[in-house]
Amino acid sequence: MKVWYLIIALFLISINLRPAITSVAPLLDTIQQDLGMSGTTAGLLTTLPVLCMGIFAPLATKISGRVGLERGLFYSLLLITIATALRGFFGTVPLLIVTAFLAGVGIGVAGPLVSGFIKHYFPTKPGVVGVYTVSMAIGAGSATGLSAPIYQAAGNWEPALAIWALLGVAAMAVWIRFPGKKKADLPEKSALPWTSGRAWLILVFFGLMSSIFYSVTAWGAPIIQSMGYNSVIAGSMLTAFVLIQIPSSFIIPSLVAKYGYVFPTLIGCTVIELGGIFLLISGGHPLIAMLLIGLGAGGLFPLALMLPIIETNTYQEASAWAAMSQGGGYVISALGPLGVGAVFDFTGSYTVALYGMAVIIVTMGGIQIVLWITARQTTLKR
User: Where does it localize (predicted)?
Assistant: First the structure.
């Protein structure tokens, strides 16, 4: 297929990998009050899909081995679309939990396959991961920024969550043109690298990094509201957190792909993110804090996705490493939003949770230093 068609396909599937999660965040207080949920239960709406993303990511290699890499991505997209659309029918806690589960399964299977897709079709251009992450940021930002206005226009939150299924319909119109079956795209022999120490370090790093992202995504607006800002301003600041990731998630991996120094760049992004958290703790302006956290997260995530690609030699291996890092990593990260909700229920304040995030970020930086010291001396790993 033409390169432009592959880029469009990558863009369209990637833009669908976050709205099912981020569309809930700006409406979390509304949904919680409407359905009478506790903070812990509300946190489950973002925790459950992330947990499923981890649990079901290792199945990606088996599924694609049966139906092919491209078809595996199409079926994942179909599941995400159905789960998102179902939210428009019944506004109940059980339905929200079921759709969060189904969306998480679809996203979990799709994630490693997208890494394999990039390695397969763009083997010498790991910087293409920037298209992947920018597309996810656009999807996440759109859902975060527009869900509240859609809710206000519609009068209830169900259509504000379900409308994002339209992105899935548009993507399926493109992905259905890929071959129905393509044997051995990701063969069974591409085992997950359970015996590799570096793979385990990448897994833990991915988990800690994602736990911060999803905690801020789920609870950023309530944290800002607790500082005295109204829901509209808090939502706009959360949108800024997401939108700043669009340029950073494209520019940073592109520069790393061109000039190298992946691990110094990772550490720099970690320091920026940590600065944003401490600004929130100290009572600084939340917009600046959210921009710093978003800038750091925007660099960390694409570089974390790039690591399995640059650490491996084939697209089968890349998908296996990605399946392991995302599988275990998302299980770890799922504890983030749930933990913030539980800490708030226990203490009545977000301060303790913010200190916990700071500790997680420092630990993440330590892992990056170990990966840097033990890295093979190649251009991207200097």
Answer: Cell membrane
